[in-house]
Write a structure and sequence with these properties.
With 347 residues, the chain is mainly alpha-helical. Helix content is 43%, strand content 10%. The protein has helices spanning 2-34, 53-62, 69-78, 98-107, 123-131, 162-182, 193-206, 213-226, 233-240, 281-288, 312-323; strands at residues 43-47, 88-92, 112-116, 153-157, 297-300, 306-309, 326-328, 334-336, 344-345. Helix 1 packs across helix 3, helix 2 crosses helix 3 and helix 7 (193-206) packs across helix 8.
């Protein structure tokens, strides 16, 4: 009987010791995952796609976000977060506890990057920007046709595919073009949305001020109605730059204006055969709803805008004032120009 009691006592002591050890380990585990982590300052952490819990813990430990790999794994498994941690790029605050880190990774609220596509770039230039975005992944695919990509600012996450980014731009342009086509002026000399797109690409390259886009579009539309050549310098530049795949780092010469190309609107009447760049939404709206005016000419005023004219005589006077180093005013007066940059349409 005494032996049995001794055995029971030892068993009870063993159980107590085991419970103490388990309780102590559990308490230590809780403190390790609940207390502030080792990060001295905020850090960006990338969790690769198709990464399991053990690999996630290893990445976090390597980045100095957590102290102990095993405690993070146990804490994530016991808390039910182990299967909820998502790949992506995350901002982890200084001193974030492992439990807080788990919540961050389970939220899926990854860092959002911005890719801004300026208006008027060619498709080749846009693909260069897409390729240069380091947070994107993969090849962007073949060069899209000119005018198919919508210039705007796109948000994306680390590891998003470049092909998907290009598709987003294509969908955005298709939607914007469909919308402006529905809202177009009914008297336009166009039968397809593509013609609006082509005109918008010229307006985008000619206009540097928002308030002039619809007026410049009107000049081109008026010329189309009269069968006059559009005589737009950017179309010549597009032809000389091998349809936007090269840069023309010089000013146009009179010889350039005679280059043999269907895009040269000095020698070819009507719209060019396709867009010369990717216009933004403002240029698309201007091309679909030009201003009501009978103007046929415009020339740069040397201050970032243009002076418009209805007759060739008036236009020639404006050109002469500009070439004498003056900024042309709509009332015919001239003032010194801070810069001499020519922007020419229609002699």
């Amino acid at each position: 009987m005494r032996g049995l009691l001794r055995l029971l006592a030892w068993a009870a002591l063993t159980v107590a010791l085991l419970l103490g050890l388990v309780g102590g380990a559990a308490y230590w585990l809780y403190l390790d995952v609940a207390n502030p982590g080792p990060l001295a300052e905020a850090r960006t952490v990338v969790i690769p796609a198709r990464t399991g819990l053990a690999e996630i813990a290893a990445v976090l430990a390597e980045q100095g976000v957590i102290r102990h790999i095993r405690s993070f794994e146990l804490g994530a498994a016991l808390s039910g977060r182990g299967s909820s941690l998502l790949a992506g790029e995350y901002e982890v605050s200084a001193g974030a506890s492992p439990l807080h880190v788990m919540d961050i990774l389970a939220s899926g609220k990854t860092i959002k990057h911005r890719l801004t596509i300026p208006e008027g770039l060619t498709s080749a230039e846009i693909l260069t920007l897409v390729r240069a975005s380091p947070a994107l992944d993969g090849d962007p695919g073949p060069l899209p046709s000119e005018g198919e990509l919508m210039p705007e600012t796109y948000l994306y996450g680390y590891g998003d595919h470049r092909k998907d980014m290009v598709r987003r731009m294509e969908r955005a342009m298709a939607q914007a073009l469909a919308e402006v086509w529905e809202e177009r002026r009914p008297d336009l000399p166009f039968s397809t949305p593509r013609e609006v797109l082509v005109l918008a690409s010229l307006v985008e390259r000619e206009a540097s001020r928002e308030d002039e886009r619809a007026r410049i579009a009107a000049v081109f539309v008026n010329r189309l109605r009269l069968g006059m050549p559009l005589q737009s310098d950017p179309t010549v530049i597009y032809a000389l730059s091998d349809r936007g795949t090269k840069r023309l780092d010089r000013r146009l010469t009179h010889t350039d204006l005679a280059v043999s190309s269907p895009y040269n609107t000095y020698i070819s009447k009507g719209l060019p055969p396709g867009p010369i760049g990717n216009p933004g939404i403002s240029a698309l709206r201007a091309a679909a709803r030009p201003a009501f005016t009978d103007e046929l000419y415009f020339v740069a005023d040397g201050a970032g805008g243009h002076v418009f004219a209805k007759t060739l005589a008036e236009h020639n006077r404006n050109v002469a004032q500009y070439r004498h180093g003056a900024s042309v005013e709509p009332n015919g007066e001239a003032r010194p120009s801070p810069e001499a940059r020519e922007g020419r349409t229609a002699q």
